[in-house]
Amino acid sequence: MTRPKTKILVDGGDPQETRRIQELLGFVDGQTTNPSLIAKNPHIKELITSGHKLSNREEMDEYKKIVQTISPLVGDAGVSIEVFSDEKTTAQEMFSQGQEMFSWIPNAYIKYPCTAEGLRAAQNSVKQGMRVNMTLCFSQQQAAAVYAATKGTKEPAYVSPFVGRLDDIGQNGMDVVKNIKRMFSKGDGHVLVLAASIRSLEHLLYCFALQTELATVPAKTLELWASKNFPTPDNQFQYKAPGKSIPYEELDLEQPWERFDIQHELTRKGIEKFAADYRATLSRIAEREERKTKAPQTQMGTSGFPRPSLSSGRRRQLPADDPGAII
Ligand code: E4P
Questions:
Q1: In angstroms, what is the span from residue 216 Cα to ligand 1's centroid?
Q2: Mean pLDDT for each consecutive 10-residue tract of the chain (327 residues)?
Q3: Helix, strand, coil proportions of the chain in percent (round to 5)?
Q4: 221 lines ligand 1 (CB under 6 A)
Q5: Are 282 and 291 spatial neighbours (Cβ–Cβ below 8 Å)?
Q6: In a 10 Å sphere around its CB, with 0-12 CB exposed, 13-18 middle and 19+ buried, how is residue 292 labelled?
């Protein structure tokens, strides 16, 4: 196989799957995870099916175990770990979680959403030398904001345009990837494009043709690629756009990030879905406490999660570092 220039990451939440792909391809450059993928991890699914819902701390610990198992299996594109956030989560709360997650493995990238709070958290993170991956990116303006917010980073930052979800609403998702690449060709190279929400072999081949720096791909698409003997696009390759084209915008990357229009309906919906999938794994008390994050009397745990009030609910004696465990 001629190894493509585009680094290949596995988009998943199951170390066994990463190992399988590693054996199939002979390499895996990196891994991306998110709350929905973690909720689908076989061990977590088994816990939930057997009636055990997790505390916030248990959820974090499970997530940590998963990424610690994946970490040594992948190359230098690292493992992206996503903070848990909803529409009310502040930059400081995201950053606290990010700091904890960054300490889990030596090759972590912290995923923050492309929102004002996520960008603030990222700005702070890169100042502290943390690597970031800005997720739920659906527009060139959001990518420009990522560029501006992460300027000065010591290590490359990633931005993840979500191709498949744009296709789903009748647009040509790959246009966003193409437009961001074109825009960044005028920049200083500190942000790398990580094509995400890849759903087909055509998406993957077009990423190769565009020479996106990275692409995160579900195992089943990588298996399909392998079954066809690892094709790469030739000069005749033409991408069959599935939806309406998205025009290129002339943007000035030197502006402060606050000047860009970062609103996108799919970013809002994406956060909502990640939060719902995360909450579905939580015990009722942990879920209630997680929703109360903004309540003034809430004491924050070290990870940016709220500490449940010990007077509520029936609970066993908890170790000090296990603020949310219940029976
Ligand atoms: C990766 O970082 C993303 O979380 C993932 O690619 C989303 O893909 P989906 O749109 O298929 O859920």
A1: 8
A2: 93 98 97 95 91 88 97 98 96 98 98 98 98 98 98 97 98 98 97 98 98 98 98 94 96 98 98 94 70 49 36 30 28
A3: 45, 15, 40
A4: no
A5: no
A6: middle
Does residue 162 line the site of ligand 1, with CB under 6 A? Answer: yes
Q: Examine the residue annotation and report whether 111 is marked as an active-site residue of this protein.
A: yes
Strand boundaries in 48-149, DSSP class E: 78-82, 108-113, 132-137
Distance from C-alpha of 170 to C-alpha of 142, rounded to nearest angstrom: 20
Ligand 1 centre distance from Cα of residue 218 (Å)? 8
Tokens of residue 30, six digits:
């990196």
CA dist 236 → 30, 92, 206, 267 (Å)? 29, 49, 12, 34
Residue 136 CB contacts under 8 Å (≥ 6 apart), including other chains: 113, 114, 115, 160, 162, 266, 267, 270, 271
Is the shortest distance between the CB of 11 and ligand 1 below 6 Å? yes
Which residue from 318, 249, 256 is spatially nearest to 289, judged by alpha carbons? 318
Tokens of 105: 């493995």
8-state DSSP, 309: P
Kindly give the distance from the C-alpha atom of residue 288 to the centroid of ligand 1, in angstroms, as a whole number: 27
In order of start, what are the domains of the chain with their CATH numbers? 7-307 (3.20.20.70)
Q: Which residues contact 228 (CB under 8 A, 6 or more apart)?
A: 201
